[in-house]
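Onboarding guide, step 5: your first structure request.
Type a short instruction followed by the sequence, for example:

Predict the 3D structure of this protein.
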Amino acid sequence: MEKYTLKKKLAVVQKYCSGEFGLKAVAKEHDVNVSSLRKWIAAYQANGIKGLKEKRRQFYSVDFKLEVLRRVEDDGLSFRQAGALFDIRKFDIIGHWKRQHEEGGVELLSQGPLRRNRTMTKQSNQKTKPVSDGDDERSRQELLDELNVLRMENAYPKKARSLGSGDAGDIAQKAQVVLELRQTYPLASLLKVAGLARSTFYYQQKVLQQADKYADLKRRIRTVFDKNKGRYGYRRVTAVVRQEGNQINHKTVQRLMGELHLKSCVRIKKYRAYKGQLGHVADNVLARNFDAVRPNEKWVTDVTEFKVSGQKLYLSPVMDLYNGEIVAYEMARRPLFNMVESMLRKAFGRLKSTDKPILHSDQGWQYKMPNYRRYLMEQEITPSMSRKGNCYDNAAMESFFGTLKAEYYHINEFRDLDELQAGIKEYIRYYNHDRIKLKLGGLSPVDFRVQSSPA
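The system replies with structure tokens like these:
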């Protein structure tokens, strides 16, 4: 007579399946073993009430055993799940079938479980005990078995060294070695040499055989990172990957870049002190409103310096706040006004007759000169200047300088100023045409201007 009636099993399982109570709570309330309750639930879900009924002892055919093992292997089922699916009450026997099939194939699997009489086995062993242990008394098969064991013990460390794992002291490395030699030697013997439990080996095998689902994405991330010479962080890399139709979360890209040891350039900012008030100072018309609704509505400018072997190079650019594009720039070895004058001529050449932008700068001496104000008045351009000692009023231009120096100047070495000047020219072309901006929807400044301009 079974310990639990069908009525009680059904009541307990249905109470759990109602979703109102947890597994342990139901088991405790009805004084039922948790493991048994879990088995009943799986059997009920797979076979209904039939799975809860008492089942007489049954013998299973070889074809049935092979079908169970096939489903376990193909679907990744646990022995408990397979037992519920095929209505095998003592599901532990599936593990025994699996070991039999691995060690002896279909032939051993067809023999069924071994039942030995201890007394008869002991007597049989005494009768068959050889009189001598000499090689003359041993069978040919015994000698071959011993030879195979010796070969296996010799092959194991060789395979470990060939896989680059030394003495294969790590569990995952041991499992890899066993997996490589499994086609040649019996699994049970290999596990004994490796000192691995069978369950541990199968777990490691599953881990080793799992494909990296992010392999293609990792390759694409590295390609984007290398193409931009390490200037893109995970946000810009995510934007590029999304433009290709891959909907990937930015946190995933951040984690994968960490695994690949890819880190964008560290921005290094240099403090620039205010040098006093000379000449005319314009009002702060821009007032930190860095958004523009059309091209050539708001411009910003400034001057920055670079050093190579004790020599200096100065850069004076003009940026359009509509898309962050550098519309004009000039470089010189000395920070004279003619550098700013040449830059202005190039920038004015981009203007249409209807364009009357605001040109914002700091209170540098170049922008307080009468010639500077005269050039702006001739083009009907409104001058604007940052407040005294306040670099945040010209944050857009300062941000560009920080990006230029972090992504190009600080991570490279230059032989002379000519090499630096050529590199800055190439970087500004890259910045305008290729380097994407997240605030522009993942487009470069030029692409954004082209796409937003009327046809």
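Each response can be followed by summary notes, for example: The longest strand covers residues 311-320.
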